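Handout, section B. The chain below has 353 residues.
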Amino acid sequence: MKKLATLTTLSALMALGTLQHATASTELQISTWAGPNHGVNTIVWPTWGSWVEEATEGRVTVNVVHDMGPPSSQMELIADGVADVTWLFHGLMPGRFELTKLPELPTFEDFSSESASVAYWRTHNEFLAEANEHRGVEVIGVGVHGPGALYLTEEIDGLDDLDGKRVRIGGGIMADISNALELTGVALPPASTYEAATQGVIDGAMLTLEGLKSFRLAEVLPYTVQMPGGFYRGSFSMVINPDTWASLSEEDRAAIEEVSGERLSRLFGYMMDVVDERGIEFAKEQGNTFLELPAEELERFQQIAADLPGQWEAGAKERGVDGDAARDFFLEQLDAVESEEGLNAEAVVDQSM
């Protein structure tokens, strides 16, 4: 009888251990920035988190942590294992990221950020990933923000009026554009732009349309100058720590891959389209003025920016990538994605509503 009782107890303990193993969960720590009301934090992370939890049947969840470090340190935070997941703006790490300027180049054509982000993901996989610019982390998605605009304290009539103006820039192709326009670029994170404008440190800023609301630009920079397709775009990626990724079961990695990659990239672009519209609406409510440059000034900017694609292609070649083929592929995918079914409000979690 004693032997039977011992075996019964052992069986119960083994069953309990099996149950605990089956219900064990992993909580991914997401380091984020740009403020709690930014679309990444109200749409992207909540939606992706719900997708991950559902795909893994609750075995993997996420926890979003704000202010673990400035935007420029996010890559290091993930590589060092301080956090598991984050989003990067490549322009804040010049020298490290050069191929990522591809989707930032002016196209002078209007297209959605959702389409651009999906096309970018496909191009990243086909051409850019092999250069290993993201060494130290695993890329789980990429993104492109909407048309970059110019916000000013004073009205202008043409590009010559920008000569010498102190304008906030964030790196990447913005630096090249500001130099071409003979602006005095002031490198600042987006969240510091409002204060710099109120203190008279800058005369304007280059940022996204969503920044009119999320970074309160409409309150201090009442004039918005737009360009067809944007003066520039901005390149981002979502990354995970390699050790964290390897620690997940094969089943959970496969499940997370299903809701990351192209789907996460599409989500990022969808978010940017939504918040850009909200930024424009907010600026109009504030009584801001949207300036249209004369046709000859648009043509002049095209001439100013004409050398940028060739410069990018030359830099890509130095990193072992066929820049001409990569750019052609990106533009082809951009056209292809425009005809594909996109996301809608019912498919996402929007905590800003």
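Note. The two ends are 64 Å apart (CA to CA). Compare this with the example in section A.
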